[in-house]
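Study the following:
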Amino acid sequence: MAAPGAQQGESGTMDLKLTNRIAVVAGGSRGSGYAVAAELAAEGARVVLTGRNPDFVADAVDRITQAGGTVRGLVTNMVSVEDAKRIVDLAREAFGEPDILVVNPPSPSNTSGFEAVTNEEYLAAHDMYTMSLVNLAREVLPAMKARRWGRIVELASIVKTPHLHVPLPHQNTRVASVAIIKTISFEYAKYEITANSIAPGAIASALATEYFEVNGYDAEAYLKATPMERFGYPEDIAALVAFLCSQRANFISGETIRIDGGASVSLF
């Protein structure tokens, strides 16, 4: 449901001075992650994107390459220390030490109810949403410090404060990852390294459609909770990420920025 005048997939470039910057987009083969990888490549960055499905990774690399971008793809998970090293090593081998890290974990499971969630599910969510960020950030930060420049962006969720109707492991660990971004922003500010979280609302994508269907969620209910009465698009997320990764955003750090069509009712 799109409001009059809303345009899906609009994307353009302004000179964000990202030419030849080296970007890692972990979770960049589909949806908003792919849009981010494509936008950074369109702005001149050299991009390494990852995903777990070989077909999606190959398709993402092909599309960005055909559009004139410079990109490498890697089929891998993004959770463990070994995963993080494998991802960043590819960037080093292909282009050099990363200037930009974007972390986009997969969607959560649907288990809800405090007593229903197992310890294993909590630990898996912690690894997926928290440790993936920790391990990737630790891998890129030393070189960023040495260069005195770097950008870290986490694609988080509007679940930066507890929401009772969101699966418990998801909401608990998402809050933790936002806190980690805040810690990084404070500790590394003196090195001209910024770290920010983006909190998307309802974004239209094949991934979102699958998530709604698998979990039995009502897409219309999401639209009714959004003042614009439509979904956002992955390109909306990508444009914000590209700006945050640029020199134009060099005094924005430690923030969680909502991009939800005005759906949030809180002031901060």
